[in-house]
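Protein data:
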Amino acid sequence: MTLSQQFLAAATLTFVGAVVQALLALKSGAWKQGRTQLLLMALGFALQTGFIYLRGKEVGQCPMKSLPDILGFIAWSIVLLYFLVGSGYRLSLLGLFTAPLVSIMQVLALTGGFAPYPPKGKINALIELHAAVALIAYAAFALACITGVMYLVQERMLKRHQIGGLFYQLPPIQGLASAIQRLVRLGLLLLSISLGISFALHTPVSNPKLVFSWVVWALYALITVLMWKHFTSPRRTAWLAVIGFILPFISLWIVTHA
């Protein structure tokens, strides 16, 4: 295992530790979004950043060309957005719901294996920017999916009158619905910017990566219009955010094996 992979493995264990710590605190009734949870998430993010840096040194460019590298980069972007938007939306349990997804993605990356990249000439900064912005957009869609899960969990608790420790730590259900919409719009904006850069690069329309990017864009554009016109209830919006993430997640595997 290379040094970069050791950093990624350590980050994964840290996020698993954050989940365990949060679950134990909830079970004991002593949950509070305090220093321990934030420190674990921050430590995991620092280790992820170390992985991105070391892996970039190994391949001589931003590590975004293989599926394991893409999964690692999206996992890093998800945690970055967690710190940027979590406090803004007052999503007190976002870390608890984020860490499992990030851990799963990083385990898949580690088991997938990291191979060296083929030799490459001069790096085009626009191409790197295009790929990076697209993957950060996917991270925003992933956070919308996580927030959708939080919404559905809280709604289920309300229906079953399961008012307990977890329920009291979830933000107001209206706030979750609003956060889903904003995250979907953020992801759509970032993906639009990425696709706009592809025009400047004169990327062929038949390029598999571009085709699937447009399909994902169309899906989330439709979801955005449905939310904007209030054609869907908050519950259906949550389900769209959760199920909708299946397409970009699957497209990652397809385009990296095309």
About this structure: The mean pLDDT is 83.
